[in-house]
């Protein structure tokens, strides 16, 4: 993760796509713009998921067995959803660069925090409530 973050950082600097650090006003504008672009990329992941589920439904309606239709639809969107995931990660890396974060360390710290958390998380609480 560290090396891809550095690669993205260099690429974004070459293109002039980094989040501005010029002054507070420019940084504010740049942060908001990049957040808007990040959420657009996240929405594009949702669009690919919707395309996949619609394709799976169509195939099932045409008589293809449910599991097979799901797998075929998954294969159909895999390359495109990969592009949207990559776009999203590129924007997340911009934020990490701006805040001088080591993403790899932050991910490890977060996993450790979750692992050592004493309270059950939301997903676990919801499972308990459904029972
Ligand atoms: Mg995109």
TrEMBL record:
<dbReference type="GO" id="GO:0016787">
    <property type="term" value="F:hydrolase activity"/>
</dbReference>
<protein>
    <submittedName>
        <fullName>NTP pyrophosphatase (Non-canonical NTP hydrolase)</fullName>
    </submittedName>
</protein>
<keyword id="KW-0378">Hydrolase</keyword>
């Amino acid at each position: 993760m560290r090396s891809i973050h550095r690669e993205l950082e260099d690429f974004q600097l070459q293109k002039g796509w980094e989040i501005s650090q010029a002054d507070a006003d420019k940084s504010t504008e740049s942060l908001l713009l990049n957040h808007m672009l990040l959420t657009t990329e996240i929405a594009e992941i949702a669009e690919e998921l919707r395309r996949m589920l619609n394709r799976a439904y169509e195939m099932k309606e045409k008589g293809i067995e449910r599991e097979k239709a799901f797998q075929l639809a998954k294969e159909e969107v895999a390359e495109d959803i990969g592009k949207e995931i990559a776009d999203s990660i590129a924007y997340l890396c911009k934020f990490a660069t701006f805040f001088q974060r080591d993403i790899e360390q932050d991910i490890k710290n977060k996993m450790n925090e979750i692992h050592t958390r004493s309270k059950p998380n939301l997903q676990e609480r919801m499972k308990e409530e459904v029972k």
